[in-house]
Amino acid sequence: METETKITLKNQSDVVVGALNACFFAKRGFNVHVFESREDIRKAKIVKGRSINLALSHRGRQALKHVGMEDKIISKGIPMHARMIHSLSGKQSPIPYGRKGQYILSVDRANLNKELLSDAETYPNTTLNFEHKLQDWSADTGLMTFSRSDGSKDQIHADLIVGCDGAFSATRKQFLRRSRFNYSQTYIPHGYMELTMPPVNGEFAMKPNYLHIWPRNTFMMIALPNLDKTFTCTLFMPFEDFEKITTGDEVIQFFQSYFPDMIPLIGVEALKKDYFRLPAQAMVSVKCSPYHIGDKCVLMGDAAHAVVPFYGQGMNAGFEDCIVFDELMEQFNEDFRAVLPEYTRVRVPDDHAIADLAMYNYVEMRAHVNSKWFLFRKHVDNVLHFFLPKTIIPLYTMVTFTRIPYHHAVERWHWQNKVINYGLLLSAVGAVLGGSYLLTKHSQQVNKLAVPAEKMWTRLVSFRIPGMMTTQM
Ligand code: EGU
């Protein structure tokens, strides 16, 4: 039906958004050529690099649904209905994400890649090209030049170039040369390292249907379950602290101090080995605008907006990009001259909002989130939402379980905070809430906790400075 050639270009880590996008465009009848710099991950023996599992939530699922892939992907995902907060003493406390049907899924990045590539390939109007590295492209002619692994060059003409090539996008280089292109990137002082927790007697070492969290202020550990009954544990820590640990014994000492309950679950020897397997990985936040050049090229996914992982939204935001673009294609009859500028206009504020939210959450978590504080804050969210379900919707709920545009969610969150600030509400509900928290969680130790709880309360109130975006409700 269409004669136009459409090129989706991808490489490195962002294969998922590129492959999904290929399905979206193929479904519309475009001739799609996908270029990937690495070899075909489905044939690769070792898959190194980026994080192993991802948290799939509503936005990502909706995008998969559009191309008929939702069921296939969720059947291999592990539902996480709640967080499980691990305190330093080893105590575990669950906090649900929402109502019964509200859960997120732990999905395997490699499997997602493979399934989406295989699905893209089923469209007769789609071809996949691996080991094609983008060297250069022209915004005037749409001519793209690729280098292949044997050193040879390949040139192809495209009507539309879709750059889904990750945080270090080669497509984006052309944008950077142009006037009135805004760009910023920030590396955070933290790095991350992934450690594997093996099964115990063939079963998960911890409860599987949770996102396990060990909040320790500047350090944080998170664990997501995998189908093979392992957990992938991700340690977030300032690079300078990673560098201080140089021997196996220091690793054990460190875990003894901050994550003692994990030592028997991972195992002393495994821990000593795993820690030095790969150096800590950096995390970068990238914002830019516009996302398009004329009617020739558009950036999506991490290429347009790499976010730090502290909201679990990187992939979900990239997948939602694909839906938004597809909706505009429908609205403007696939006229790229109209679709591309409109895509920039509607999508930049939302992608910038999620980039900011993820960064704020990083700052907040590292500043003062220990396990008690985390539990208290999430409890406040849930109780307010319970009493005023229409008025107060926790920010993470809007972000995770709805398709409310990210920037609307932020605006609404500010508004909610004002309601909480100025209304009598806060004091009325507050008494109930503080009391119920103490009674339900610490019925035997009310006396012991009275002072810390009061401190937390002062902290909460002091955060509600109008116009300041510090807390997350
Ligand atoms: C980080 C790394 C808990 C996977 C943010 C919550 C994350 C994930 C949270 C990673 C946290 C942090 C949320 C989800 C999710 C929470 C969320 C973070 C998945 C505000 C594979 N975050 N993540 N917030 O609410 O909305 O449970 O590596 F520790 S899922 Cl940092 Cl919902």
Automatic annotation (TrEMBL):
Its EC number is 1.14.13.9. The keyword NADP applies. It catalyses: L-kynurenine + NADPH + O2 + H(+) = 3-hydroxy-L-kynurenine + NADP(+) + H2O. Its cofactor is FAD. The keyword Ubl conjugation does not apply. Pfam families: FAD_binding_3 (PF01494). GO terms for molecular function: FAD binding; kynurenine 3-monooxygenase activity. It is found in: Mitochondrion outer membrane. Residues 17-323 form the FAD-binding domain. Keywords: FAD, Flavoprotein, Membrane, Mitochondrion, Mitochondrion outer membrane, Monooxygenase, NADP, Oxidoreductase, Pyridine nucleotide biosynthesis, Transmembrane, Transmembrane helix. GO terms for cellular component: mitochondrial outer membrane. Catalyzes the hydroxylation of L-kynurenine (L-Kyn) to form 3-hydroxy-L-kynurenine (L-3OHKyn). Required for synthesis of quinolinic acid, a neurotoxic NMDA receptor antagonist and potential endogenous inhibitor of NMDA receptor signaling in axonal targeting, synaptogenesis and apoptosis during brain development. Quinolinic acid may also affect NMDA receptor signaling in pancreatic beta cells, osteoblasts, myocardial cells, and the gastrointestinal tract. This is Kynurenine 3-monooxygenase. It comes from Oryzias sinensis (Chinese medaka). The gene is KMO.
